[in-house]
Amino acid sequence: MITGIYHNAMNVLDMEKSLRFYVDGVGMKFSHEIKKEDGSPWIVYLSIGNAESLELFYGGVKDHETPYSEEQIGYHHWCITCTDLAKLHERVLKTDTLNPKDEGKQPSMLKNGGKNFWIHDPDGNALEIVQPKPVEEYAGRDELLGIGHWALAVQDIPKAVYFYTTKLGFRWERTLNKDGEPWIDYLIVREEPRQTIELFHNASKSTPNEWNSAGSPHVCFSCDNVQAMVELLRERGVPIYIEPKIGADGKGQAWIRDPEGHRIELMTA
Ligand SMILES: [Fe+2]
Ligand SMILES: [Fe+2]
C-alpha cells in the first residue's frame, strides 16, 4: 500500500542559490547531505515538517528552455503546506530570495479562509504554497506542515488516471474544468493529512527527462513495505524499472515509471 507522497526531488543548477531559497526563504530545515563514492557532492536533504522532504541534487543540466508549462509533458509543479503564509512570504522577501518573476505577487485567499501562493525557485520551478486553514487555527505557529500535492502535465489522461488509480491504488476524486473543457484531474494519495496528485490535461510537447535534467527527475511515494509493494505491482503488470535495493540513505527503495516515463521511487517508511 502506498501511504503518501514522501519526497520530491530537484536537480538544481546552483546549489547555494537553491538552498538560500528553500531554507532561508521558504523555511525548510537542512537535514543531511550525502556524497558520491568519489567524495564529490551528490544530494542535500531538506525536511518539510515532521515526515516529508525535498532532495536537492547537484549538477542539474539546463537541457530545456522552459522549466514547466501545461504544454510540456512531464513534471509541472508541487505544493507544500504551512501554518502562516503571510510570515513565510515576509521571510522570502526579507531574505531576498524571491524570484524576480514573482515580484509584487500576493497570496490569494481560499474559500475556507486558508491561503494559496505560487512562487518560483531560482531555476524557475514552481512551488505552490498552501495554508490549508485560517491562521487563527494554527495559534501563532510559523512552520511548514508537509507536502500537499505533486502535479504532472499529461498527454494521455485516461492512461495516466488508469495507472495511478488501478495500478498504484490512488482514488480518483474529480475533474476541474476551465472554459467548459476538462483541465485538471485530482487523485487522492492520502485522505488525512490530505495529499493529492494533479494531472493537467492536453500536454503535447516532449522535453528531455534525463536523470540530471534540471527540474524534478522523480517523486517518491512511501509504502509500508517496498518488497511487498513491488510484488503487488508486478502482479498488476507494472514493469519494475529498478528492483528493490537498499539506497545510499540506508532505506529500502525500488523504482517504476509512469506511462509517460516519469520516474517514481518507492520507499519503505
Ligand atoms: Fe497545484
Ligand atoms: Fe528520491
Describe the 3D structure.
With 269 residues, the chain is an alpha+beta fold. 16% of the residues lie in helices and 41% in strands. A hairpin with a 3-residue loop joins strand 3 (41-48) and strand 4 (52-57). 36% of the residues are buried. The model has no long low-confidence stretch (mean pLDDT 94). One fe (ii) ion is lined by residues 77, 79, 128, 149, 151, 198. Residues 77, 79, 128, 149, 151, 198 line the site of one fe (ii) ion.
SSE blueprint:
Elements: E1 2-11, H1 15-25, E2 29-35, E3 41-48, E4 52-57, E5 74-82, H2 85-94, E6 108-109, E7 115-120, E8 126-131, E9 144-153, H3 157-167, E10 171-178, E11 181-190, E12 195-200, E13 218-223, H4 226-235, E14 242-246, E15 252-257, E16 263-268
Parallel strand pairs: 1-4, 5-8, 9-12, 13-16
Antiparallel strand pairs: 1-13, 2-3, 3-4, 5-9, 6-7, 7-8, 10-11, 11-12, 14-15, 15-16
Bound molecules: fe (ii) ion (FE2) (2 copies).
One fe (ii) ion is lined by residues 77, 79, 128, 149, 151, 198.
CATH domain fold name: 2,3-Dihydroxybiphenyl 1,2-Dioxygenase, domain 1
CATH architecture, by name, is Roll
Strand residue content: 35-45%
What is the CATH C-level name? Answer: Alpha Beta
**Order of helix and strand elements from N to C terminus:** EHEEEEHEEEEHEEEEHEEE
> What would the principal axes of the Cα set say about the shape?
globular
Bound molecules: fe (ii) ion
Mean pLDDT reading: 94
The total of helices stands at: 4
Structural class: alpha+beta
Q: What Rg, in angstroms, do the CA atoms define?
A: 18 Å
Compute the number of strand runs.
16
Ends apart, CA distance between termini = 11 Å
CATH level 4 superfamily: 2,3-Dihydroxybiphenyl 1,2-Dioxygenase, domain 1
Question: Looking across the biggest beta sheet, what order are the strands in?
Answer: 2-3-4-1-13-16-15-14
